[in-house]
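If your schedule permits, I should be very grateful for your opinion on a structural question. The matter concerns a single protein, recorded as an amino acid sequence and a row of backbone structure tokens. Could you please explain, in whatever detail you think fit, how the structure tokens follow from the sequence? I set the record out below, with my sincere thanks for your time.

——
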Amino acid sequence: MIRLDYNFKIKLNIMVDISHSRKDLIDIIETYKLNDSKYLHGYNDMNKDILSQLLWKVVTDKNRKLDISNDTCFFFKDIEDLKKYISSKSPNVKLKNKDMIEIHTKIKNLNYYCKRCGYIIEQSNYESMEDIIKDANSVRQYGNEPSVRRCIKLLNLDNKIKVSFLCVMSNRTKRTLEIKEEIKKHTTPRLKINKGNHIICFE
């Protein structure tokens, strides 16, 4: 097992967000072959705190390049993309039962406001637009869930809200949705009509 120099531990500013699990960090190390660094030799025997510190030291090395040849799940473009990911809250955080109930209740209320109330606050379970925005910002953090994405998509149609809510999703979920969209575009029947020098397309 690697020993961590305590002086190094004190000086090093830990930048890996605590929401990332030890398993997630190991998956990143193995996917991008970061264990070729001397700091990550024996990474499987390290606890999460030490692993986080040493992983950050490796990815912040100005000479470090990202080997994406084995990437089938994270889809980072470069080392900066990876750094941004591990220093932000993990989109893979599992909700506890209590939190899950709270999030689903907020989704239900937002959907009711959009679908049944036609975006009219007075007919909904909300008292103000500030409350709606607060709930939207809360649920959008769990964009890996399809129900969250559907809810936020509906809410973004409300012309009273001047900002557009973006769902926080893992790169894997983003890439899966991109692939589905690409397949949809290529498989959607299109009717082409030649009219003079113009082509009119109907989907």
